[in-house]
Amino acid sequence: MSYRIYLVEDDKNLNLVLTSYLEKEGWQVSSFLTGSEAEDAIKDPPDLWILDIMLPDIDGYHLLQEIKKVSPATPIIFISARDADIDRVVGLELGSDDYLAKPFLPRELVIRCRNLLERIYSPGLQIYSVPPYTINEASRTVKTNDETVDLTSKEFDITLYFIKNQGIALSREQILAAVWGTDYFGSDRVVDDLIRRLRKKLPYLNIETIYGYGYRLVKS
């Protein structure tokens, strides 16, 4: 499938190299050298953003927040040459789906993009009903009373994971692997933060805390 990808990277040489690798996969790539150029394109969301944190004009964190206002479910991969642990945690908390610390091999970025795109846009998707919510896996939306609940990509992923595993006790490690991927490196407290936000947005989704272990979605 020919996905649309927006690449925001201010290093011109790296931008050209990454664009070339991504286009070899058959993807349609629009590349930007500044945050302001990318900001103008937010109104026409792609299938995936690849976003550098350190930009010459607009902070990458600010740009991510602006993207999420328009298309909260669109996946984002952060790339950065700064402190890897801090940027990784902050980026994930703000709603990014993956993180790559510079320097990295262009092929690694391609693999991460492919895995993320296939996970989010894979065929054979279903519609689930967990009253009062209707979860559409294909459109990646959650609705209640015909109104769409505004969820980030990660919030939708964890909702879907719970729904597919109703009644099952899930450890934080299992949730991390399913939602963030097995190569995630960081604190499992991102799970707690994400569930705290999810409980506010989906108050009727009965997610139980299993102290010292993880969480369980109670069967309706």
Task: Give the SSE map.
Elements: E1 4-8, H1 12-23, E2 28-32, H2 35-40, E3 48-52, H3 60-70, E4 76-80, H4 84-94, E5 98-101, H5 106-121, E6 127-130, E7 133-136, E8 141-144, E9 147-148, H6 153-164, E10 170-171, H7 172-179, H8 189-201, E11 207-210, E12 214-217
Parallel strand pairs: 1-2, 1-3, 3-4, 4-5
Antiparallel strand pairs: 6-7, 7-8, 8-9, 10-12, 11-12
Walkthrough of the structure:
- The termini are far apart.
- This protein has helices at residues 12-23, 35-40, 60-70, 84-94, 106-121, 153-164, 172-179, 189-201; strands spanning 4-8, 28-32, 48-52, 76-80, 98-101, 127-130, 133-136, 141-144, 147-148, 170-171, 207-210, 214-217.
- Helices cover 40% and strands 22% of the residues.
- The longest helix is centred in the middle third of the chain and has 16 residues, at 106-121.
- By secondary structure, it is α/β, with parallel strands linked by helices.
- The protein has eight helices and twelve strands.
- Helix 1 packs across helix 5 and helix 6 (153-164) packs across helix 8 (189-201).
Q: Structural class of the helix and strand makeup?
A: alpha/beta
Proportion of beta-strand residues: 15-25%
Unreliable residue runs: none
Helices, by number, come to 8
β-strand number: 12
Rg calc = 17 Å
C-alpha end-to-end distance:
36 Å
Biggest β-sheet description: 5 strands, parallel
Features:
alpha/beta, 8 helices, 12 strands, globular
Give a short overview.
The chain is an alpha/beta fold and 220 residues long.
